[in-house]
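Continuing the series of single-chain predictions for the mutant panel. This is the parent chain; the variants come on the following pages.
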Amino acid sequence: MVKIKYLVAIRPFAFPASVFPVTIGALVSMKYGNFSPPLYILSLIAAILIHSGVNTSNDIFDYLSGVDREGTLGSSGLLVNKKISLKELAFISFICFAVGILIGIFLTFKSGPWLLLIGALGVILGYFYTGKPFQLKYRGLGLFIVFVLMGPLMVFGAEYVQRKTVSFEGFLLGTTIGIATTLILLSNEIRDSQDDKQVGIKSLAIVKGDEYASKIYLILSISQYVPVIILVINGFLSILALLSVISIFIYLGIYRELIDKAVKRKDSHEIKDVDKKSAFAETIMGVFIILGMVV
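Parent structure:
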């Protein structure tokens, strides 16, 4: 039971958001002739640990700030439902960050000093995403931070570990993966806009309204395939990567749910799984992009 509780705390359903950029970054390097399986595995472990540290620290700060409270749908819900203590969750967060950082330092010695900058930026922005004093998510910067961290920055980091430089192809694929991860957060923000507004959070859905934010969700859903199409045309990806477009049907279904919420046909509890569905859509897209890189 304890192990299940800790597993819920780190929110593994969101791990595709760290697995795919690291894998894609490593495969970009492979296409340039450089790939070390041990370095890839260590990069993946470090990314998942930092991601887990960010998830658990977000739970803590969202709970302490009153964002997560009884009746809301955000985060793991463990603190709100008294299934874990703040001390336990803080310990998990610390361990995840500490071990992830140690692995990152080791990888810096193996690759080069620029990885230290990439990793430090990732940890700092990840922690202050909801951590005091900056709490970037609450100031309307959440979407941008997630795009940068879980997209180009993470792909660049994984590629740099392998070949000590980065590429334009890595940037394009990082853009696609970054948008896909941003869509998870955006669906979450639209779903939770009424609850978040009560505690003074700024988000696109609150500032511009649910309907406007839902339309942005649709635009981003479509635009994320553009870099993939470009890389298929120039031969960097095989035609298999075009099958990633299948995920658009999931995104369109989520968009309809978000619009239903925006025009009051549904409430937030009726669309409570839009973030998980967005993560599933990213998983399908990521799998076909990877296939397009190796087949």
